[in-house]
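Q: Okay, next protein. This is TonB-dependent transporter Oar-like beta-barrel domain-containing protein from marine metagenome. I've checked the sequence twice, so it should be correct. Can you predict the 3D structure?
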Amino acid sequence: MNSGWVRIVSCLVWMAVGLSAQTNTGALTGVVRDTSGGVLPGATVLAIHPDSGRTVERVVDAEGRFFLPALPIGSWEVAVEMPGFGRETQTGIDLEIGRTLQLEFALSLGALSEEVTVEISTPLLQVSTAEISDVIEAREVEQMPLNGRQFLRLAQLSDAVVIPPGGTRGGALQQAGPLPNVGGQRAGHNIYMLDGFKVTDELFNNLVINPSVDSIQEFKIQKSMYPPEFGGKASALINVATKSGSNVYHGSLFEFIRDERFDARNFFDDPNLPVPPLDQQQYGGTFGGPIVPNRTFFFVSYERQDTRRSITKTFSVPDSAARAGDFSGWDPVCDPTTVNPVSGACTPFVGNQIPAGRVDPIAQAFLSNVPLPTGSGRFQNLTSVEPQDKDVHQFSFRVDHRLTDTDQLLVRYSSFDADEIQPFGTSVQQEALVPGFGRTLDTTTRNLGVSHTHTFGLGMLNEFRFGYMRVDGGQRSLNVGNDFAAQVGLQGVSDNPRDVGFPQVSTAGLFSTMGDPTTFVSRDNEHFEMYNNFLIDRGEHQLKFGGYLFHLR
């Protein structure tokens, strides 16, 4: 594949009210006044993140304003104090991903020992930006019933988001969750990010990592006003923030089981045979805590899903007599050597039986791989029960480290592996292939993200991020490597190793489609990305500029 480079050399944004917070963090801004409404320049603002013990201190500017960017999402407490005034503390500040919260403080005259504590609730309206977005919070992610534990299904909690039926090539490869339509845009026009790093398959516009829902802090669906470094797609920016460790060790274990002994019989199942099995096991856990209290934290998660499912389908296949050329009782079968080129008339075979010497040996070799009927009649005479097995593994390890009071480091590694057998082809492409001619589907993804944030003085901040992802896998035939064409001398077929197998035969509605799939979709690509954003706070105005480099190969 040819390499592709995308460079955004510099982006400059000047906003009159507030600056969009960083992609995987949030920001706090506000004004400090006295009870008469006058601003209090020189007041000290102290923001505390109880889970990690992190504190951020700022001095209010000449206009009474403060701005605290690049803060970890979660619960915060903010205290303001100034000599000659009582201390005011606001608690219960729930900072969401990519959101800037506006706070207001009114200090009363008094000693510093006098303190007023106010518990606030997060406002429903975002007043510092005109973006249209929704945040699916940790409580919803963890407590909503979620069959399959694919977090993207919760995107439907947001307005203008639906999960459409499949049908695209990208949808046929999707193993990490459904592809949502947002605001009427195509499902393949979303950008997917994990902690601010792209996890989008750039060839088919898929999400290729499905983090465990127990590892997700929250995720945001941004439908407009994207940050300047994230363009190139017409639909939504969906960004997931994973959990980080705290000063307290926390862990969880889970297992969900569905056993075949609880299954009912399908209408089409053979009543003389045991109920086809359907076993599902999904298990895993999380663990996080401090490596160095108040400085270094870790969080690890693992999840596995094993599905052993049998599918019952019916097909129309030729019986032994038809395979030998005996079509007695069928509509007349014309001898192709007797066709009149003008009238199209022909002479049927005597007795509607093709002579043994006239039956093509390649056709006979092909039909020897097609199952015989299990029932009587010409149509729907084969009932087949085939396994549709699927295994999914996902792993994530995250470290947050406070290098100094002005330097924060985040490192996260995630992997996602999925393997699936589709015995009758994929329903996304409306396939119903005779047994023995199905597909396999696999996805292997590795993602690494490193982020460094440095604060310069009281009004400047630099954020650098580096991301790497590789994804490979796709569709393959169950008969890959079986070179049927070479074995029987069939000419004019593909010699691509991915396509090697059996040809596909269609009989215009007489029999079910026989043979391997005709198209296979796959990918093997990796990308590197680097972001650097520089923020300057100037009271009522904030500047943001930086660069973005993306390399795909």
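A: Here is a summary of the prediction. The helical segments are 138-143, 169-173, 320-323, 361-367, 484-488. Confidence is low (pLDDT under 50) at residues 5-21.
Q: Noted. On to the next one.
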